[in-house]
Predict the 3D structure of the following.
Amino acid sequence: MNIDRRRFLSGLGSSGALLATSSWLDTIGYAQRSRGPARVSIAPRYGAADLDRRLFGSFLEHLGRAIYTGIYEPGSPLASPDGFRTDVAHEIRELGVPIVRYPGGNFVSGYNWLDGVGPKAQRPTVLDRAWNSLETNQFGTNEFIDWCRSVEAEPLLGMNFGTGTAEQAVAYVEYCNVERGTKWSDLRRAHGYARPHDVRRWCLGNEMDGPWQIGQLQAREYGRKARDAARQMRVIDGRLELIACGSSGTNMPTYLAWDREVLEECYDQVDGISLHAYYGNTPALTGNNAGRYLAMNLDMDRQIHEIAAVCDYVRALRRSNKRLWLSFDEWNVWYRARGGDAANGRRQIAPRLLEEVYNLEDALLVGGFVNTLVRNADRVRVACLAQLVNVIAPLVTSHTAVLRQTIYYPYAWALRYARGQVLDVRVESETYPISGAGLQADFARSEQVPWVDVVATHDAQTSRVSVLMLNRDLDGDREVAVEWSGGVKPSRVLTCETLAGPDLKAFNTFEQPRRVAPQRFDPPAVSERMVFKLPARSYTVAHLAAD
Ligand code: AHR
């Protein structure tokens, strides 16, 4: 017999009173219990659509070694005739990255796309002012489209709203998407691309609220520019999906006000708005406390809810039928290789910039971010792990090999296992305090956070269920009792793996590439109530047949 869901939920009224009534966490399905295993009730979500695969996209910027020596290294024994690194392309194809944002990032705000097309010998070397690096333009839009086709990813192109005009942005769309018979489409054809690239999704600039951004704008100025450019773009191609620049972080003084003002100007012309966030285990944010650090994905939940609320507010003001979706098109851990030498290219070609080395605790938090994206998949349609190769990335290249950093694994699990409908997950868990002297308990605006974080999906086409579980407890195992209801009935365990280890600071190197890697995990027998014993500080996936 199925565990009665109503009984479970009403049980929260007593055991879960604290979190359920006083915490923001109840809005994402979490309630507190005082003792014992976490209780997780999993049922179908009424009316849920299949999650958009673009939720697990990534990002490549002309920055450091992301493009040059990352995905493109002509002359390398590992390169294809086009100059693409075949080992890297193989990894990305195997991951199944659905969409890749390009060419920036901060870089795009000073980029002239015309410098990167046409005969390579005639392309100029320019000084990129975002990262003080030399840009040879040997890789540009057409190479990117070819590369995307080769790894079976969709391109998500960014436009220069810094030094660039609306005219240049519109010309870019014409170059890419019009078949023939116009100035810019015929230029593309002259460059050897007879068929249009048919790029559907475009970012209208990057982080235009940031004082670091080339050509930073005020919210209303940006909103009007976005509206004007978008209106023209839709004349060129009526099928575009356009993403306005939202706040570049929750720490911006204009956070939410920027988003509101921008949308008041351009709501009718755009389809989505961007969110960005980077996290770190820093003295200021966490007091270097790993327990606080592993709660940071709840901050991402909060950001999603807050930006969605602004979108809906403007929608109501405009009496619009259209519901905007969110594009979380930059997210990751990034705090060590940041600023100073790590961000200054010193006028070199492909300098080593932002080469963050990821450890186990970073990978666990990235697992938490995956969970946050999955449970918000009804609103977040596109998201991009920033970035993909060498620059704050899951993959790192040497001239002869490619290395999987720790964060590769939770990202790969998301791509492989989180498919189909997002299931409704209610968690009743013990909690732990994250407040500390001098530190704000920002994460989900709560003093207490649950030890475990759980999401689940059901792929009706293949009859597979996946459960992704984060155990934030640094010192001990945590039991999670999963109770299935509403017709979700697993029959067999297909895979069960965990990412864990004794040293939260352990990382992978070319010499020791599997120091942090998934291990097999003994799953419980399949039943209506399955008790998983999650190892201390771990991220675990269970993949089950449900036929
Ligand atoms: O991803 C690195 C940088 O972070 C991007 O260029 C910028 O958009 C963000 O600030």
